[in-house]
Amino acid sequence: MTIISSTREVPVTSAIPQHVAIIMDGNGRWASKRLLPRTAGHAKGVQSVRRAVETCGRLGVRHLTLFAFSSENWRRPAEEVTLLMRLFVQALEREVARLEDQGVRMHVVGDLSAFEPRLQELILQAQAQTAHNDKLHLTIAANYGGRWDILQATRKMLIAEPELAANPLSIDESQLEKYLSMSWAPEPDLFIRTGGEQRISNFLIWQMAYSELYFTDCYWPDFGEAELLQAFEWYRVRERRFGRTSAQLHAKSAS
Ligand code: IPE
Ligand code: IPE
Ligand code: MG
């Protein structure tokens, strides 16, 4: 008898990760180390975003997902939150043309209703303006939380398919996945967290069930192409087993 607990198929993997998800952490400490206000670190971090987009585009990564503001980050001092929102607005005003040129399609995921109307409008514009691009999908997670995502997906699913409530045993993983924020993307192959902490901080908790987890002490503003290539190299030599044994994988690659 075959017992399969997951309703998902084993994903196809390659040497270059198809989907990279990054927690861009360490901006505040980067700035404090230089006796600068934390906000200077956030401003500097925008350059690292630009570099990461360029490098991923060049190497053929299809999806780059960046955690820009978590649902928990509202707990920060009001001035820092305001500055982060301002930087987001600025980045949308200044960077979208460059994304256009690079064939990047931009998405923003998270509970956007909490943002001021101008920011919401710019997000919609950026998404619409780049919607025809397909080279690299850049997703910014803003006011995003993994638990929020699972909850909103559950609600959406039951609203769209109310008959499921009467037959909960018919609900499988792929059914719920259709309603998750990033349903268009494969699950992340490689997760990177800069800044030295080794935690997920409520990022893509459903989607990262089988991602390779890479942690580096490098602060986000210092994270450039060399650091990204180092992470890719680390990823390249992982053996992704998805529950199978090493011997099974070798037998498959030999056949
Ligand atoms: C990450 O850097 C950026 C955001 C959370 C917006 P931090 O601001 O968390 O930097 P550290 O962790 O305090 O150094
Ligand atoms: C996670 O970083 C969120 C973002 C990078 C946007 P934090 O620095 O807020 O994470 P914790 O709270 O220290 O885990
Ligand atoms: Mg932090």
Describe this structure as you would to a colleague.
The chain is α/β, with parallel strands linked by helices and 255 residues long. The chain has a single domain, classed as 3-Layer(aba) Sandwich (Undecaprenyl pyrophosphate synthetase). It contains eight helices and six strands; from the N terminus they run βααβαβαβααββαα. It has a six-stranded parallel sheet with strand order 3-4-2-1-5-6, sandwiched between helices. α1 packs across α2. It is globular, with a radius of gyration of 19 Å. It starts with 18 loop residues before the first strand and ends with a helix. The protein binds 3-methylbut-3-enyl trihydrogen diphosphate (IPE) (2 copies) and magnesium ion.
Give the topology.
Blueprint: E1 19-23, H1 27-33, H2 38-59, E2 63-70, H3 78-101, E3 104-109, H4 117-129, E4 136-144, H5 146-160, H6 173-177, E5 190-193, E6 212-215, H7 225-236, H8 246-254
Parallel strand pairs: 1-2, 1-5, 2-4, 3-4, 5-6
Helix pairs in contact: 1-2, 2-3, 3-4
Bound molecules: 3-methylbut-3-enyl trihydrogen diphosphate (2 copies) and magnesium ion (MG).
What is the residue-averaged pLDDT? 95
Cofactors, ions and other ligands in the entry:
3-methylbut-3-enyl trihydrogen diphosphate, magnesium ion
- The CATH architecture: 3-Layer(aba) Sandwich
Q: Rg, please? A: 19 Å
Q: Helix share of residues?
A: 40-55%
> What is the CA-CA span between the terminal residues?
25 Å
Number of helices: 8
